[in-house]
Amino acid sequence: xxxxxxxxxxIVLTALVMIPVLLIAAPSPTGxxxxxxxxxYVVKISGCNDCHTPAYAQRDGQVPERDWLTGDGTGWSxxxxxxxxxxxxxxxAALSEAQWLQLARTAQYRPPMPWFNLRAMxxxxxxxxxxxVRHLGPAGVAAPAYVPPGGAVATAVVRFPGPPPxx
Length: 167
Ligand code: HEC
Known about the structure:
By secondary structure, this protein is mainly alpha-helical. The chain has helices at about 5-25, 35-45, 50, 90-95, 95-105, 115-120, 125-135, and strands spanning about 75-80, 80-85, 155-160.
């Protein structure tokens, strides 16, 4: 009996040391900063697909990744006219990483694009988004062009109720 004690101690000690080591080594679901994995995670949780991927919201997110961010032909109509969520696969294919960072920090798009969310992202997350979208590669066709207020709209639209309420 006594002879087995040291062995038991060794097993318990090894387990105590290995558990934290394994936990640290386990791949993080959020990806390493600036990585493609991180980009996929940020795109997924920050809602880009809801507008920039055809039928993503209607299909509860069940759209193959190869179709993500290829733009959408449903218009968003309001006092600003009608906007279409752009094809980001084509857009980012035409930009360098530095140009993307500059754009994300300065561009102010029409509603309902949450450009302010891009500005709130860290450089690391913006770089990760860029690398992820470039990793997916260019695909699809350009979304319909913006239509100014009063112009003829040839697509289905989501209509916003009117000007924003006064603050
Ligand atoms: C609520 C819908 C919506 C969401 C969510 C959204 N976008 Fe957009 N996005 C749009 C629309 C609509 C436009 C076109 C705006 C315009 O015409 O000014 C646009 C335009 C853009 C553009 C400009 C592209 C160009 O052709 O110049 C970029 C870049 C962009 N979105 C990136 C993103 C990213 C990255 C996310 C996720 C963090 C995101 N968008 C989330 C609707 C959305």
